Amino acid sequence: MRIRTLGIFVAVAMLVLTGCGSSSKNRPAATSGDQSQRESSGKSAWLPAGAVVHSDIAYGDNSAQKLDVYQGSKAKDAPIIIMVHGGGWHRGDKADTNVVKNKVAHYLPLGYDVISVNYRLSPQVTPVTEASDVAAALAYVQKHATEWAGSASKIVMMGHSAGANLVALVAANPTFAAKASAAPWLGTVVLDSAAYNVVQIMQAKHLALYDPVFGTDQELWQQSSPTLVLGGKPAPMLLVCSTNRADSCPQAKAFSIAADALGTSTSVDPVPLSHGQINAQVGAPGPLTNSIDALLRSLKMP
Hints:
The chain is α/β, with parallel strands linked by helices. The chain is built from ten helices and ten strands. It is globular.
């Protein structure tokens, strides 16, 4: 386990516990219909020139099982970042500005495709089912990557907050990928999950947001805990955690120790940013983006 500590501290914004993006008023304008496309326009001025968005592609039968593909003009056998939004497992959206804006603006000009995923939400389903949706989206992307000039063999999964818990679950427990018929992917970026061990959370004083999602079902607590369901040898993982939160970095470090014992290459990156800032600033110039880009280079993504 390698722990990188940043030497430059930034001003601390108010902690956003559910960690999710901006309101729908700030989303890029969408066209209707599955697999629709739109070019960069004034309504989406942050999209790189020549970018095409394939909107609301269904990867499952449920109306929530949709994804957006951001394809750059330079895409050719493009590496792919699959982004999973947060929202306390019960809210959030793939098109929220903080989920996609800086990531798309940074990675498309580098030749990547960025794919943002929606999934079914609590209370209709549990986080375990949400993780199954993420695995299904991964399998769909692998099957259809060439339709967006992408490479099925060069995929990294990324998630923030609740979405970070979900991508960590899929990485930790190989059953999710196996049931979805998803092939191995190159690596996983976990953006400020404090829910690597839900059992530990629920057995101590905790935030009220966990109760309606996890209730008193101790089996669900176990199954939703990446640290407790670790199996196999996950692909390399970067675990970003906010030093402004008391619970984020300790849980990330505990997971890293457990994963490294299985032979996984993990790196814990404590950053002096708020929970929400970590999501929004991926792709913006700075140490956080540099850290993620270093992982991508090590995986030979570009």
